[in-house]
Write a structure and sequence with these properties.
The structure is a homodimer. Chain A is mostly helical. The first copy, chain A, has ten helices and no strands. The structure holds a DNA duplex.
Amino acid sequence: MNEHLTISDNDAIAEQSPSAREQEVLSVVLDLMVEEGDGFSMASVARRASCSKETLYRWYGDRDGLLTATVQWQASKVAMPILDDTNLTLSAFSRTLRDFASSWLTVLTSDVSIALNRLAVSHAGNNKSSLGRIVLENGPYAMRTRLLPIFLKGQKAELIDVRGDEAFRLFFGLVIADVQIRALLGDEKKPTRNEIQEFAQKAVDQFLSLCGKQQNQ
Amino acid sequence: MNEHLTISDNDAIAEQSPSAREQEVLSVVLDLMVEEGDGFSMASVARRASCSKETLYRWYGDRDGLLTATVQWQASKVAMPILDDTNLTLSAFSRTLRDFASSWLTVLTSDVSIALNRLAVSHAGNNKSSLGRIVLENGPYAMRTRLLPIFLKGQKAELIDVRGDEAFRLFFGLVIADVQIRALLGDEKKPTRNEIQEFAQKAVDQFLSLCGKQQNQ
DNA sequence: ATAGAACCGTACCGTACGGTACTGCAATGT
DNA sequence: ACATTGCAGTACCGTACGGTACGGTTCTAT
């Protein structure tokens, strides 16, 4: 956890970005998560990261702390793709949504995301270990937070007409559908790059068709 | 595993329905799954089911066998709701879909289903233990198998126009959306009975609006 | 009535892993 | 040069759990 008890800035805001060495460790954890799921041991982390278990425990307190730090680090890496809001044309709006959907699907079907979500799901059962909450906040909730302003702009430009909540739920369903749960359950048949493109395009078309202002409703 | 090595009908087809005593055991496992997730021990099962660990191992081989038997038993309990296909009106078709969606959402948000899916998701990571596959087959795949003939009838009656695959994906997305993954990640805010009704109705309306023959497309 | 199987309860074993303690080394600051 | 500090590496400890063994009891079949 935060900068190794340097005399200067302890407590403070916490949540500092991890040092290079720490990132090595967290990266190892991420790899092991992908390879072995939740089953990896602290010893295996120490071995592969060439550090001592004692160091792991000094930095992260316990296993759960290490997992939490890893999850938060990974979450912090997903950049917030800001949308330029000057262009209000339907085609630009549609393109933005399509790119977002495509990127979303790509992330969700990546090995790291699958491993992370599996971990969070299994830890959400056992109380303790706020991993589920963290992934929830950095997954669905974060996507919601990113999408709502986009929808709002679309609404302002009279391109769509729908309440924010419903817009998110609808968009989520159309884009993700059964892709994520199937991936989590180990379905080998993951969508290809092309299929993701098609899914994204189709989902956006359907989204606009359902709550767009152009024709129906 | 199957009838305790009675001299008569061993091997045969396997997969016999469990005896009353076995169902007691499996029911205990289900309860423990809901309470403690994957963390429960074989000893706790034996204790609560008032049986010996030795019996558990004789019947199910190992822990994974017990989990598998439990999952399969639970899956076998979900009845296949057959649709009467004489009525081909749009309203009857819509009502059938709505009831299906509503029932689906209710099941997915139940404690047992959440616990079961959590278990399957976490075991899908660790190789071994075909639990993920089993839940996949009895979850999404089974739903698909049940829905496809319904869609086909709707298509025959010229109520909808869409390929079966796409119809399922679309229907799944519109109905489930982010409900399941949020539940799996431990989101406390589960939809109420009323919200489920609304979700189901709205999803069916959207589904028919998107691929129905009445107006657009 | 009696043999045999199933089974409960419990004690037991091996192992794996989370967490701690200790030793030595290497870097840093004075 | 020397003390201090952080860390790698390893040995160690306690515990929890999967799996097995065994004694005693109940049920079943002949």
